[in-house]
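Question: Now follow the chain.
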Amino acid sequence: MTIIKPHKTHIYLRFFISIFALGALGGSIYIFEYNSLVNIKNQIESNEKAIVELQIQNADLKNNLYQILDPTKLEGLAVENQLVLEKNPEYFNTKQWVSGLSF
């Protein structure tokens, strides 16, 4: 007598299909994450290059500022505009800051 087990073949088929589906899903997630990691590394490298370029521009601007604010050039500008160096400057004087309550 032959015993036929039709339900056993479907169980094996479902098992292999589910294993294949899990492998495909895991592989696609791995590929997605790897691509994201590579994109982030490329962005970091490009941002580092941009930072270096901005630091160079910042150094150039500071150099220009220091050249403009050179004390010898400022003294020459003061002489040119006939400005006089004050011996005792009073930038902040308490007498100037009179409030209404002090009368």
